[in-house]
Design a protein that fits this description.
The chain is an alpha/beta fold and 135 residues long. The chain has a domain of 75 residues: Nucleotidyltransferase, domain 5 (2-Layer Sandwich), CATH 3.30.420.270. Helices cover 36% and strands 13% of the residues. A 4-stranded mixed β-sheet has the order 2-1-3-4, with helices on one face. It is elongated. The termini are far apart.
Length: 135
């Protein structure tokens, strides 16, 4: 018989398809964030890459880029998705106030994740010069 028997290959393909269907939803859970370290280097401005920044104030209100009017999480998501459609290499950041509730910062990160942002960075200020802890 000179024909190739493809039945085993179809079985393997179906098993792999079932495995991927089960594991795919598990991979999309949670908020993926690349957290900065204490000794993180400064992100240099790149003219080719657009920056999308969500500001979270003390009251938990969200502001996009330089807007003075608060935005809802849905508006943040829609604006971030529009930026991604226009520029797939855009950088996404969350700049939370020190007194902002953790829930508000997570809500901003979740809106960016729902828009399809591949990574979200947190903007911080460098530590003040002087003696460190325990010195």
């Amino acid at each position: 018989m000179s024909e190739i028997n493809v039945v085993p290959y179809i079985d393997v393909m179906l098993v792999l398809m079932v495995i991927f269907m089960i594991t795919a939803p598990l991979l999309t859970e949670g908020v993926k964030v690349d957290l900065p370290r204490a000794d993180a280097r400064r992100v240099e401005a790149d003219a080719q890459r657009e920056h999308f920044i969500v500001h979270v104030d003390r009251g938990g209100r969200l502001f996009t880029n330089r807007d003075s009017k608060p935005s809802t999480p849905r508006e943040v998501r829609d604006r971030a998705a529009a930026v991604l459609r226009h520029n797939a290499g855009a950088l996404f950041f969350v700049r939370g106030d020190r007194e902002a509730a953790y829930e508000s910062v997570v809500r901003a990160m979740l809106a960016l994740q729902q828009a399809g942002a591949p990574n979200v960075g947190l903007i911080t200020h460098p530590p003040a010069a002087g003696p460190g802890p325990g010195q």
